[in-house]
Design a protein that fits this description.
Elements (H helix, E strand, L loop, with lengths): L1 H12 L59 H5 L23 H14 L1 H4 L30 H5 L2 H10 L15 H18 L21 H10 L25 E4 L2 E4 L2 H9 L20 H13 L2
Antiparallel strand pairs: 1-2
Length: about 300
């Protein structure tokens, strides 16, 4: 009888030991390390070990986590060993010295997610976001350029990388550093080169024009002509009268311009202010898209001489 009662009790208790949930810790006759005092990520420090009461700790000052040194400036910054925008893809993204098909395919996929809405699937600058709004006005202050533009076909890959990482046109194209990891930035550039080559077989993955202007001691028109490309003024200002992002330089000097501060004569003082403080006076009909240019006085005067020569 006693054996039967124990057997029945065991059978009744056994189902209750399976599948039950409890906020209480399990019973351990020999505790060992099951219920030790320990910190858990995102929880308050209850041990009193840290004065600020946080379990998660900041890195020790002056230290870098393993794998986060980012000492490869070519890969992370798009710069060569001279600090200039790189003309080649970094070795870290190549397989046996070349860009693999899978890498290009990854770039195509990322491009269609992040870039095509503005730049278009074909890279023609006619993505859905770049179309006119319902009221007939533009959705974007600065229209995306076509990758078939000669300037972009000659652009070195390091400058394209900078555009993705840092943004361009005073934030009209914002930085995509958060959305697009480093590897994917280079993969997108590889796809853009493919789009350019589809329209012009002469376009190569690497190379391009990287204008470097030596420091001058005297301002000159020739120096200004070089700076026009080196400082990428040609991205927004034409020299033949064509309307781009900003006013054309042709016939600009000596002209009256309607600006946010009233009618202004385009003279040396106006041009200098426009280069160093471009938001001070916005020309009517053009977006506030120009960032301040890092120019020394000789460079400023050289650019003024160049602009003044374009009658």
């Amino acid at each position: 009888m006693r054996t039967s009662c124990f057997t029945l009790l065991f059978l009744l208790v056994l189902p209750g030991c399976r599948g039950g949930e409890s906020a209480q810790p399990p019973v351990h006759l020999i505790r060992n390390m099951f219920t030790q005092e320990k910190g858990k990520a995102y929880r308050k420090d209850t041990s009193g070990l840290f004065a600020d009461g946080r379990v998660m700790r900041l890195p020790v000052e002056g230290t870098v986590a393993q794998g986060q040194l980012e000492d490869d400036t070519h890969f992370y910054e798009g710069l060569d060993d001279k600090g200039q925008p790189a003309q080649t893809f970094p070795a870290a993204v190549k397989t046996d010295g070349v860009l693999s098909d899978s890498f290009r395919a990854r770039g195509k996929a990322r491009y269609e997610i992040y870039c095509a809405p503005c730049h278009g699937l074909a890279g023609d600058g006619k993505g859905p976001v770049a179309q006119l709004a319902l009221d007939g006005g533009p959705r974007l202050l600065v229209a995306p350029p076509s990758y078939a533009d000669p300037r972009l076909k000659e652009m070195v890959v390091g400058k394209m990388y900078s555009a993705i990482k840092n943004g361009v046109n005073a934030g009209n194209m914002p930085s995509y550093a958060v959305q697009v990891p480093v590897d994917d930035r280079w993969a997108i550039i590889a796809h853009v080169r493919g789009l350019q080559r589809a329209a012009d077989p002469a376009v190569q993955d690497e190379g391009g024009v990287n204008v470097v202007v030596a420091k001058a001691t005297v301002a000159s028109l020739a120096q200004g002509a070089l700076l026009y490309k080196a400082k990428t003024c040609n991205a927004c200002h034409s020299v033949d009268g064509t309307r781009v992002v900003g006013p054309s330089f042709k016939g600009l000097y000596g002209r009256m311009e309607k600006t946010s501060a009233g009618d202004m004569m385009v003279d040396d003082a106006y041009l200098k202010e426009s280069m160093l403080q471009p938001m001070a006076k916005i020309v009517d009909g053009y977006p506030p898209a120009m960032p301040p240019l890092p120019l020394d006085p000789i460079e400023v005067q050289s650019l003024i001489l160049f602009i003044a020569s374009l009658k």
